[in-house]
Design goal:
The complex is a heterodimer of chains A (261) and B (478).
Chain A (H helix, E strand, L loop, with lengths): L6 E4 L3 H6 L1 H13 L3 E3 L8 H5 L3 H15 L4 E4 L2 H14 L4 H12 L1 E3 H8 L8 E9 L2 H7 L3 H7 L3 E7 L13 H4 L1 H18 L3 E4 L2 H13 L5 E4 H5 L21
Parallel strand pairs in A: 1-2, 1-3, 3-4, 5-6, 5-7, 7-8
Helix pairs in contact in A: 5-6, 5-8, 7-9, 11-12
Chain B lengths: L8 H9 L2 H24 L3 H17 L1 H14 L3 E5 L2 H14 L4 E4 L3 H5 L2 H7 L3 E4 L2 H9 L15 H12 L11 H18 L2 E4 L3 E3 L4 E6 L3 H7 L3 E7 L3 E2 L2 H15 L7 E5 L13 E7 L22 H4 L2 H6 L10 H12 L1 H4 L1 H4 L6 H5 L6 H15 L4 H14 L2 H19 L4 E2 L6 H4 L4 E2 L6 H12 L4
Parallel strand pairs in B: 1-10, 2-3, 2-4, 4-7, 5-8, 7-10
Antiparallel strand pairs in B: 5-6, 6-9, 11-12
Helix pairs in contact in B: 3-12, 9-10, 15-19
The chains are: A alpha/beta (261), B alpha/beta (478).
The structure holds iron/sulfur cluster.
Chain lengths: 261, 478
């Protein structure tokens, strides 16, 4: 790439920060490989749980913190369509009655992207330096798909991964039943929905399930494991960054080169 | 009839998910409606542009609702019809009873009408000695089963074919039908034969309306069975039960919306029957009712104008939102404990019945957004469900524990140092509980999750912890 390196504020997402740092490091690698300079300001969560619980004032307070922490970067990138959608689409809505913050929210919103679509659509990445042996299938997480039009981008890059065979998941556009706090508030329904998803995943015959949102991945992995299958589950960034040796699949253990303490 | 209650949504849902007949009916619905709508949309390149036009048109109507309704009334009167303005369900029932009494009615035939369901008309008529006979096959089935509708265009979609066969066998003996029919064609024919005589016996026919056309004073109804035509032409009196947001300025406007309606609902290019009613029978007409009444219900709708829920009044009751809803696919329509179900019901029911009793409905959504993506009128359903959640949170209708939880969590999320301390603690705790395993089968306080799913143990330290450690290591020592 030519020109000045772009300064990226990485929005790690609270789930990756806590459960699966490898996703964050994979994002860093992909962005750095594409010539970006990655920054990680101190952060917590995008506030979506409060927003969706109807706690608007709480969500606004959290959003102000995120805006203040991230507005100095050229772009904000998150390895999640859900959090990127929250910042990009819902922050402006959250402040629609507040001219000052609305302006700042909109300014941040237009430079906020989901990781994979940022790589392909903004940085023009066409190839990745990664290999992965086996058949994988891909689930389109709802927010990425419907709020940000993330659909072709991950497939485009996955096809560049050496050895990887992509089989389409028939119900790829159907919700997995995660839904943030929905998954515990309406646990029975959530489990019923994810069980349908599990059957569809298993029917593809793929050995690995990928998606771009950790919430959905944890939900699907949890159900797949409980039912006793052997499908492995990973965030798409781990595969694209060639970092599948850095951590075992979600919910699994195994030899890692990971940064354990 | 009291069936399931909205406030018991969770229990209703559990029951519904354990009902194998219902689950097989829902799987069929999902496998049919979704691809058919997609194919219909793909066949019409201007489909999305039409949706935009339909939305603009309805927004314009809602901004001028009084004008169009008055024009409708004027033109309906001029054509010999009568319009009854009804603020509440009670008013509407009273108006209908008045008309039926005037006609000396003992039996009324009914076409499918969601507004009639909304005002619980059947039970009311029965209590007043008038027998309502449903003529739409789906409505007829649920009338026999004494159940409310479970879907706005397919009231009996929750029934399997086998269940219908049994139901008919049990109820049609009195008409000398003693063979259990199992072929769909034969089942439909049997219903037709039983209903045929009832059309002639009826003194009043009641139908709904999909549109009210202001410029002509006509009502329009679309069906696939043609039963609506017999219901409204044979009896001497025809009552259209409908609601105020159904008005459109012109016939052409109605046809714009009709083009997206059938495609979104059933995947047809157009419904099989589109019936216009303009006043009663005129001199020289071969058939038609002598009296034509339009019962125009408000029931909380005008109160939605100018609020964050106004967009909901664009709804044309196509059912696409529920056909594509993962929650509806799991729990079916009855679980909602309301006349309007699925995503549209989750927004509408709290408006009609109050958020206290209906608070689960807008809450029980994953916000996957598929409803909005298929809604022909581009109604932002998740956004409006979220507005209901805001009202529930602000008014204290949502559970206190839940509000507390959100408040404490949000308070922490605004204090990164505290949040991070909490995150580190959580990681270590989960690691310890995991004892070297990658996942937990049980987790205190997360029983909802682990009832059907394993819970992943965090990798190690938080990302931010590791990131900062790396930065420090990379920096040359001072
Ligand atoms: S909300 Fe939209 S999709 Fe649902 S019934 Fe109404 S018009 Fe159809």
């Amino acid at each position: 790439m030519t020109g000045k390196p772009k300064n990226i504020g990485l929005f790690v997402t609270c789930l990756a920060d806590l459960f699966r740092p490898t996703v964050g490091f994979a994002a860093v690698k992909l962005l750095e490989d594409a010539g970006c300079r990655v920054h990680v300001p101190t952060q917590t969560c995008c506030g979506q749980p409060a927003f969706n619980a109807g706690a608007r004032a709480n969500a606004q307070a959290i959003a102000r913190g995120v805006i203040a922490a991230f507005e100095r970067f050229d772009y904000v990138v998150a390895p999640s369509g859900s959090c990127a959608g929250m910042i990009g689409k819902h922050y402006p809505e959250l402040f629609q009655d507040d001219p000052t913050w609305s302006k700042r929210a909109r300014a941040l919103g237009i430079k906020t992207f989901e990781l994979v679509s940022f790589l392909t659509d903004v940085l023009g990445v066409r190839a990745v330096d990664a290999a992965f042996e086996g058949k994988v299938t891909y689930h389109d997480s709802c927010s990425g798909l419907r709020e940000l039009n993330v659909k072709r981008q991950p497939r485009q890059l996955l096809r560049q991964v050496e050895g990887l065979e992509l089989v389409e998941l028939p119900s790829a556009e159907e919700c997995c039943g995660f839904g943030g706090t929905f998954c515990v508030k309406y646990a029975d329904i959530s489990i019923d929905i994810v069980e349908r998803k599990r059957k569809d995943i298993v029917a593809t015959g793929a050995g690995t399930l990928l998606a771009g949102d950790l919430g959905c991945l944890m939900n699907m992995a949890g159900r797949l494991h409980r039912a006793g299958g052997d499908v492995e589950v990973r965030h798409v960034a781990e595969v694209l960054a060639g970092m599948t040796d850095d951590a075992p699949p979600i919910g699994d253990t195994g030899p890692t080169r990971a940064r354990e303490d | 009839m009291e069936f399931m209650q909205a406030r018991k949504f969770k229990d209703n849902a559990r029951e519904a998910m354990a009902d194998r007949n219902l689950q097989s009916a829902l799987a069929q619905l999902k496998g049919g409606f979704i691809p058919r709508r997609q194919e219909a949309a793909d066949r019409l390149p201007e489909f999305d542009a039409l949706r935009d036009r339909a939305r603009e048109l309805k927004d314009h109507v809602l901004a001028n609702l009084d004008v169009y309704l008055e024009t409708f009334e004027e033109n309906c009167r001029a054509a010999g019809g009568q319009v009854h303005w009804c603020a509440t369900a009670e008013d509407a029932r009273a108006a209908i009873l008045g008309i039926c009494r005037e006609a000396g009615a003992r039996t009324v035939t009914k076409g499918k009408s969601m507004v009639a369901e909304e005002i619980h008309l059947n039970g009311f008529l029965e209590r007043h000695g008038i027998t309502p006979v449903e003529t739409d096959l789906g409505e007829y089935i649920i009338q026999l089963a004494e159940e409310p509708p479970s879907h706005i265009i397919g009231p009996a979609v929750h029934k399997t074919k086998d269940q219908v066969s049994d139901l008919f066998l049990a109820h049609h003996r009195q008409y000398g039908k003693t063979v259990r029919q199992t072929e769909p064609g034969a089942i439909i024919n049997e219903a037709r034969e039983v209903l045929r005589q009832k059309y002639f016996d009826a003194d009043v026919g009641i139908t709904g309306a999909n549109f009210l056309v202001a410029e002509t004073g006509s009502t329009i109804i679309v069906t696939n069975e043609g039963n609506g035509d017999l219901t409204q032409t044979l009896p001497r009196t025809h009552i259209v039960v409908t609601s105020i947001e159904k008005v459109v300025p012109t016939l052409e406007d109605a046809s714009t919306i009709l083009r997206v309606l059938a495609r979104s609902a059933t995947g047809q290019d157009f419904s099989a029957y589109t019936t216009l009613s303009t006043g009663g029978r005129r001199d020289g007409d071969l058939d038609g009712p002598e009296n034509f009444h339009v019962v125009l219900l408000d029931n909380g709708r005008s109160a939605m104008l100018g609020t964050e829920f106004q967009d909901m009044l664009r709804c044309i009751r196509c059912g696409a939102c529920m056909n594509h809803c993962p929650v509806y696919h799991s729990v079916g329509g009855h679980s909602y404990g309301a006349v309007y179900v699925g995503p549209m019901g989750a927004v509408l029911t709290p408006s009609l019945e109050g958020i206290d009793d209906a608070r689960h409905l807008p809450s029980a959504s994953t916000f996957c957004g598929r409803c909005e993506s298929v809604c022909p009128m581009r109604i932002p359903l998740p956004k409006m469900m979220r507005h209901w959640r805001e009202r529930a949170y602000d008014s204290g209708a949502s559970a206190a524990m839940e509000r507390w939880g959100v408040d404490i969590w949000a308070w922490t999320a605004r204090r990164p140092w505290l949040y991070e301390a909490g995150a580190r603690l959580a990681v270590r705790l989960l690691k310890r509980l995991g004892r070297g395993r990658g996942r937990l089968r049980r987790l205190p306080l997360a029983g909802g999750w682990t009832r059907g799913r394993d819970f992943p143990v965090p990798e190690g330290r938080t990302f931010q912890e590791q990131w900062r450690a790396r930065r420090r290591a990379a920096r040359p020592a001072p």
